[in-house]
YceG-like family protein
Amino acid sequence: MKIVLRSFSIGLLTATILFGFTYYIEETERKKESSVEEENPLSIETASTFLQQEGFVVLTQDEWLSATEENEEQIVQEEPEEELSQEEEEAYILLIEPGMVIHEISTALYENGLIDDQVAFGKFLETNEYSTKIQIGEFELRKNMTHEEIAEVITK
């Protein structure tokens, strides 16, 4: 038992010495790196020059604020009537008849551009328990609706 205990303590001592030595070496390397950074601090001019060379656009805060204000003004000036006419054009009437299964419904939605993936929509209906609540009838849907919004409409 003494031999085992001595071997264990020698192993712990060796591991401690190795970790201490590694820590000391890494600490001196970090100090060297930080002293190099202190000698060459990064200035605004060098940073902006570097970014411009890499293809980025560098703006001051005032330039950024004026650009965003101009963009907001353009958005406000757009007419909401055009948006309504586009939404009306994107409306689609979905007819769900007795005996239709989820696959048929999702195929109809996919073919008319209301969803991107019919399998994902079917899985969404099943995992969120909408598949058992689908109603029979005609439903008005729009192309910009999410899966959840479509599911809410066809289960009311």
The first helix runs from residue 2 to 39. DSSP finds seven helices and two strands in the chain. The radius of gyration is 33 Å.
